[in-house]
């Protein structure tokens, strides 16, 4: 008999093997795996009793907390589909997602009452709003909150053989940085095999303690919701990213690993209170969500005292595809090591990666010729929700086309040079905005940098830098342009620099370049010159 592959099996295993072990730490609350599993089963029972049917989309609008983690298993046990929502989106974006997905129920944290109230009358399918963490006061909220629902529910655990591993398990919406967000359909099989491969590669053990700093609405917090549960390790929830709170949790819970986006990592290494905390239990940190840099790898390793390396993935791939953790057979000097660890890296087990030209032919491993990263793996999505044409285009030829432009080094490491839409074509030459950003960030006064294309009468378009300086540092436009010219070919260098105090970002730390283009008259969508 073939037993269906479903992440529900992860919690069943951990409950049986580690019932009294601490599963979840959430602020002042602690839950064993027996308690975690019972609460997830009660959520499943409550949903079924409320009439939730197989395949219904159940949405959660919540910061990282134990209740959202419980939904990753309880919603599935009820036969429904989990829809985690990005709480950083605007009201019109959230209402669009809820209506597009035809979600039937919405669970929300108290912090988002005003936000949901602002758009709830525009919802066409949601007929029940449940408060997660407070007593309902408004008449549009269901009379029972989450805890009351669980207390009154009869636990439900579906028979494992009743699951269809190819059915929809989780629905995540893309960040919509250039168009309306699309729903990414991840199946039970996708999630199960992704977790298995990541846990295998990182040697996840039941003794491990993982701190959730990445929001769980982002492709299950980069897979950690499942990999940690699978091995019976401990989840530590961090609802908001505050450097001192991260350090406090690392010290108190003896955290061994965590994931960050680059701006989080920069905040940690530049936090003046860092030396007040014992961070000796940290073993490794992975940085992803946006391009990273060798200087950041060096700072994290030196100041936080643990291994640091990049990871790469997309929502469409559950999400992880590649890692830059240094291979054991690679010998190199420290500076070269930091360079390798900041790259896109190489494929995780179960993943095939290629970099191809316009004819889908592999580019040479010369570190020069650009192509698009395409992927084939067990964790690639079933498709985009209600977007068959976009699905067919993205999955053409049996490979997922990522839209990320990259080169392949002689040693096989992949390095992303840009998104297709962010390549700058100046006088017929391709310029990687990421390469220019890396150069700007190497200047000691620069804290953050983004580069966009702006129109130019002579060259068609040229690079423009948008920069945030470090507190207490100074630099001029001329100084930064000259710094770039001393490190890059002149045609790649910014022709102008704007200084600002903040850069608008997605929840995963990617700069919203469409907002910069609107503000500074930038252009996008240039077609890359054929090699």
Main sheet specs: 9 strands, mixed
Total of DSSP H or I helical runs spanning 4+ residues: 17
Query: Uncertain spans, ≥5 residues at pLDDT below 50?
Result: 526-531
Q: Summarize model confidence as the mean pLDDT.
A: 93
Radius of gyration: 23 Å
Number of strands: 26
Architecture overview:
The protein is built from 17 helices and 26 strands. The chain has 531 residues and is an alpha/beta fold. The strands form six sheets. Strands 2-1-10-9-11-12-13-14-15 form a nine-stranded mixed beta sheet, with helices on both faces. Helix 3 links the parallel strand 3 and strand 4. It is globular and about 70 Å long.
Set down the secondary structure blueprint:
Elements: H1 8-17, E1 22-26, E2 29-32, H2 33-49, E3 57-61, H3 66-77, E4 81-84, H4 91-101, E5 105-108, H5 113-119, E6 128-131, H6 146-152, E7 168-173, E8 183-187, H7 188-201, E9 209-212, H8 219-222, H9 224-230, E10 234-237, H10 243-253, E11 257-260, H11 262-269, E12 284-287, H12 294-304, E13 307-313, E14 320-323, H13 334-341, E15 346-347, E16 351-356, E17 371-377, E18 383-384, H14 388-394, E19 400-408, E20 414-419, E21 424-426, E22 429-431, H15 433-441, E23 446-456, E24 460-469, H16 477-485, E25 496-499, H17 513-520, E26 522-523
Parallel strand pairs: 1-10, 3-4, 3-5, 5-6, 9-10, 9-11, 11-12, 12-13, 24-25
Antiparallel strand pairs: 1-2, 7-8, 8-18, 13-14, 14-15, 16-17, 17-19, 19-20, 21-22, 23-24, 23-26
Helix pairs in contact: 1-2, 1-9, 2-3, 2-6, 4-5, 7-9, 11-12, 12-13
């Amino acid at each position: 008999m073939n037993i269906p592959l479903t992440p529900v099996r992860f919690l069943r295993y951990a409950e049986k093997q580690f019932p009294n072990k601490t599963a979840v730490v959430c602020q002042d609350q602690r839950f064993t795996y027996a308690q975690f599993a019972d609460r997830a089963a009660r959520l499943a029972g409550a949903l079924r009793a409320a009439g939730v049917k197989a395949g219904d989309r159940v949405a959660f609008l919540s910061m990282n907390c134990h209740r959202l983690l419980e939904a990753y298993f309880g919603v599935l046990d009820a036969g429904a589909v989990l829809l985690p929502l990005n709480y950083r989106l605007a009201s019109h974006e959230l209402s669009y997602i809820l209506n597009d997905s035809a979600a039937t129920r919405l669970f929300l944290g108290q912090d988002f009452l005003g936000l949901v109230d602002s758009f709830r009358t525009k919802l066409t399918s949601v007929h029940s709003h449940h408060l997660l963490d407070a007593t309902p006061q408004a008449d549009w909220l269901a009379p029972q909150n989450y805890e009351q629902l669980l207390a009154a529910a009869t636990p439900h655990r579906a028979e494992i053989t009743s699951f269809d591993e190819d059915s929809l398990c989780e629905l995540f919406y893309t960040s919509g940085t250039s168009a309306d967000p699309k729903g990414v359909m991840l199946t039970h099989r996708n999630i199960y095999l992704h977790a298995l491969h990541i846990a295998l590669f990182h040697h996840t053990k039941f003794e491990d303690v993982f701190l959730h700093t990445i929001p769980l609405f982002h492709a299950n917090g980069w897979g950690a919701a499942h990999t940690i549960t699978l091995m019976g390790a401990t989840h530590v929830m961090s609802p908001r990213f505050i450097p001192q709170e991260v350090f406090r949790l690392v010290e108190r819970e003896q955290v061994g690993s965590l994931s960050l986006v680059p701006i989080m990592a920069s905040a940690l290494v530049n936090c003046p209170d860092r030396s007040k905390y014992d961070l000796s239990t940290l073993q490794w940190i992975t940085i992803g969500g946006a391009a990273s840099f060798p200087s950041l790898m060096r700072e994290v390793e030196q100041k936080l005292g643990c291994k640091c390396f990049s990871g790469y993935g997309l929502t469409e791939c559950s999400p992880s595809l590649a890692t830059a953790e240094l291979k054991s057979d690679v010998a190199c000097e420290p500076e070269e090591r930091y360079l390798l660890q900041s790259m896109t890296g190489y494929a995780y087990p179960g993943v095939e990666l290629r970099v191809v030209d316009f004819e889908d032919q592999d580019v040479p491993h010369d570190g020069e010729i650009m192509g698009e990263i395409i992927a084939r793996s067990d964790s690639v999505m079933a498709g985009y929700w209600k977007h068959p044409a976009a699905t067919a285009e993205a999955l053409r030829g049996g490979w997922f086309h990522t839209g990320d432009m990259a080169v392949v080094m002689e040693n096989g490491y992949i390095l992303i040079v840009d998104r297709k839409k962010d390549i700058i074509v100046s006088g017929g030459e391709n310029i990687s905005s990421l390469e220019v950003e890396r150069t700007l960030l190497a200047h000691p006064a620069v804290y953050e940098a983004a580069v966009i294309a702006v129109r130019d009468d002579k060259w068609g378009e040229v690079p423009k830098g948008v920069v945030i300086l470090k507190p207490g540092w100074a630099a001029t436009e001329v100084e930064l342009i000259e710094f770039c010219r001393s490190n890059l070919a002149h045609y790649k260098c910014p022709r102008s620099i704007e200084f600002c105090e903040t850069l608008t970002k997605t929840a995963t730390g990617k700069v919203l370049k469409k907002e910069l283009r609107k503000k500074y008259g930038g252009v996008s969508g240039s077609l890359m010159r054929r090699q």
